[in-house]
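User: Thanks for the earlier help. One more: 3'-5' exonuclease domain-containing protein. Can you show the sequence and predicted structure together?

Assistant: Of course, both are below.
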Amino acid sequence: WYIEKGLVDIVCDDPKTLKLKFEPSNRSSEPDGYYTRPKDNRCVVCGNEEDLRRKNVVPSEYRKYFDESLKNHHSHDVLLLCLSCHTRSNRFDQDLRDQLVIECNAPLADGKNNKLREIPELRALRSAARAIYFAGKTIPEPRRTELLKIISDTLGTPIDDITISFLENIINIEWAVESEHYVPHGQKVVKHYLSLGGVEDLERRWRQHFLNTMSPKYLPDLWSVNFIRD
């Protein structure tokens, strides 16, 4: 069929040897052939073959901000770890993450750098609604009246119209919105490395961190800290 379609050259008749005139679509473009090498189904750290998990050596919180070409060819940095090693590795990762916080001025989301901005009025509204809805019969009348007034003043609804069915619509109301000033830690770190020339150094740093902290004994052939794609 290949000969009939003119897709090959005949190199030798005996034995029949053919040479393709095109590059197969499923052939790896990597010069070192890493992606075509067979991978053992075991923990790359200790060799355990049970309860395996995929480990993103370069955490996804950073890689998701890479260029598409780097995001789409990342299997080099996905390794198999057993549950115990995976848990231990994640703990070590926090150490490097904390270093990047300082070096890149990229704080993690917490009380001072939260991606959500609280709206106090909505939080008070939800709290009042839940108190009446779930414990209305046990709340002293003066306190119940106070809670109803909070709901009435916030929504502009007469107190007489605040029924149980009305409360059902607000007991789970969101009281926070995403802050327009929030920039995720991973995005800031990637932006910092791009300003220095590229994210390749960030990739290498995470790979070296994995080697230093976990001392893997069973890495796939050709896995490298300095791995570079075409």
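User: Great, one quick takeaway?

Assistant: The chain has eight helices and six strands.
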